[in-house]
Amino acid sequence: MKAIKMEEVQQHLDEFANEPVYIHLETTNGAYAKHFDSNAHNVGAYIRNAQIQYERGKIVESDGTYRVGLKTDGWVYAEGLTDYELNEDGQLLLAGHDQVGRLMVALQISRKPFQM
Amino acid sequence: MVDYSKHEQVVVIYPHPDDESFGTSGTIINFREAEVPVTYLCGTLGEMGRNMGSPFFANRETLPKIRKQELIDACQVLDMDLVMLGYRDKTLEFEAKDEVADHLKKHIEKLGATLVITFYPPYAVHPDHDAMGAAAFEAVRKMDADKRPEVWATAISNNRDEMLGKPDIVVDTEPVFDRKLEAIKSHRSQAEGMLSKMRESSDFIGEYDSALQRLQYEAFYKVDVDQVNS
């Protein structure tokens, strides 16, 4: 993956609009957050291969990281994104990593289901 | 002292590629040196791992392939057979425990296990660890009492001593630690984070020695599955 270039990501978001797509959306602070800090608790949310269709996808910059929102009959969004890649399967992978390369949030869009 | 050669077949049951190397590889090496076959039933491919490297070596979609190869490499270092069970990282606790237990029981019986090593629920911190351990206990519970393997369980929660007392078996891995470290390092995507944190720590005394300090002893509780609730 490489650092997000807003114009390129916006173009890809436009390409997936108005057709059925599969999404992968996750965020986590890891399974050991509480183990290492008793004041913390583990949080996370995860959805893989939910099918949606969005009429508009938009990327917004905010203090060096990015938010992406997808307008469906409802909404899908992710915050804290830093890197992206359009992989060889034509899937748009967006992720937010911390300083040491740990994934903290991911939003991915694909025309075919993600591999299980 | 453990008499490794009295066992005929060891089956290690953990959910993630690397659980076996960090927690139990010294013990596995000892069994293999006593010519006891060891098989790893590995629950998932650690698909939800968070370390993507800096610079990146993986993304969410490529990580499973990378971790699968690391697992194969580690099992080669440990001279251990490998069965990948095909569950999905972080979802094991949502599977039907009974079905997972039946799945494990089939493997345990087919292999003729005389010893099962797994996690001790609910003292294993990660939900997959606890779920895999609970299913393994249940698998043994489903077997006829006279055919059951011995069960050793790994507890890693901060309150383990308080809840369970001292472990029944403590293996000093120093004599085989070079191979234990090699197995751990086969899981490059997982080990790199720990190793770099270790290098930066104020008490760093070299990779081998610092790793030895942290990972020298492997501890297990002997479990009678009829006497535990999980």
TrEMBL record, chain A:
The organism's place on the tree of life at top rank:
Bacteria
Entry-linked InterPro entries: DUF1806 (IPR014934), YojF_sf (IPR036492)
Pfam families, per this entry?
A: DUF1806 (PF08830)
Q: What is this protein called?
A: DUF1806 domain-containing protein
Q: Which organism is it from?
A: Alkalibacillus haloalkaliphilus
Automatic annotation (TrEMBL), chain B:
Q: Which gene encodes it?
A: bshB2
Known InterPro entries for this protein? BshB2, GlcNAc_PI_deacetylase-related, LmbE-like_dom_sf
Q: Which domain of life is it from?
A: Bacteria
Task: Using the record, list the residue span of the signal peptide; answer none if the entry has no such feature.
Answer: none
Organism lineage string: Bacteria, Bacillati, Bacillota, Bacilli, Bacillales
Pfam families of this UniProt entry?
PIG-L (PF02585)
NCBIfam families reported in the protein's UniProt record: thiol_BshB2 (TIGR04000)
Among PANTHER family, the record links this protein to: N-ACETYL-ALPHA-D-GLUCOSAMINYL L-MALATE DEACETYLASE 2-RELATED, N-ACETYLGLUCOSAMINYL-PHOSPHATIDYLINOSITOL DE-N-ACETYLASE-RELATED
Example GO molecular function term? hydrolase activity, acting on carbon-nitrogen (but not peptide) bonds, in linear amides
- What protein name applies here? Putative N-acetyl-alpha-D-glucosaminyl L-malate deacetylase 2
Q: Which organism is it from?
A: Alkalibacillus haloalkaliphilus
Per its UniProt record, the required cofactor names are: Zn(2+)
